């Protein structure tokens, strides 16, 4: 793992710096020696290296009291929704295995430092975390943070899945580290092993996920592939940017204020730029909902009421009215028509 050649957004560093005052530490102290300042962390154009992030973690740990559970405390700040399109792709996956594959395939666009991999060569699958190359004092923090974020995602992916009772093998030797994972995450920890890995039930990997959304997943994978290859999407319009920003929160009826914050522009500026493109935030939101709605009705085979809920409509009737006005037929009629066409082909 070459930590000096990879780069990513500064979001993970920002979370750590925002938490720092709770531990008697200033953001500037966390960023010492990295070449970054607090303003950089809120600039959408800023890219940071993994080496810089590791240095920030080391600074943070150097100035805080020894606490084996510190990585867990910070990890709880990493809610799935803050990961944008990477997180939404994971949540839209059809199975736990598919969700893990998305997380692994596009890890460089995430918070991950210890590289994840899914090893199915053993009798029971193992989700491994490669901490090779990380300073010894940083490794426990990184592992605990990663495991906590995994627990956060697991609750969102499939509420019936509990990490409590899972077995975690680790190269770490500190009993305090094991107790923290046991007490806070419910993991059964085996210290002084030759790998860092969670042993997973094989059946869990094929478990269907309730938030599966094939259309959204395909869209997210395309965007993630472009980002990973260093290319930009073909469209650079503000309407497209707004659509990308609100997609992860489509079910929660995102506001223009939310979109402006994600795009790091003033709400007034965003409104003006959308007006210049002969559209509005309301129209972009409606277009995004209805485009995804068409796919949910057929590709995901959802009924009208479920699709309306997933798209953030307060009532199914609101979805029916908007859909009928846009496409000239009710969503139920459109769904039946498409399903009939699929049967004939």
Summary tags:
single chain; 345 residues; alpha+beta; Arc Repressor Mutant, subunit A; 3 domains; two-stranded antiparallel sheet; 17 helices; globular; disordered N terminus
Question: Can you describe this structure?
Answer:
This protein is an alpha+beta fold and 345 residues long. It has three domains: 1-65, no CATH class; 79-211, no CATH class; 235-338, Orthogonal Bundle (Arc Repressor Mutant, subunit A). The protein has helices spanning 11-19, 27-31, 50-62, 70-75, 84-91, 96-105, 139-157, 175-185, 202-205, 214-228, 238-246, 256-263, 267-276, 281-298, 304-310, 316-327, 331-344, and strands at residues 7-8, 48-49, 115-119, 126-130, 167-169, 188-190, 197-199. The strands form two sheets. Strands 3-4-7-5-6 form a five-stranded mixed β-sheet. A hairpin with a 6-residue loop joins strand 3 (115-119) and strand 4. Helix 11 (238-246) crosses helix 12. The longest helix is centred in the middle third of the chain and has 19 residues, at 139-157. The protein is globular, with a radius of gyration of 22 Å. The model is unreliable at 1-5 (pLDDT under 50).
Topology pattern, helix = H, strand = E: EHHEHHHHEEHEHEEHHHHHHHHH
The largest beta-sheet arranges its strands as 3-4-7-5-6
Helix content: 40-55%
Percent of sequence in beta strands: 5-15%
Number of helices: 17
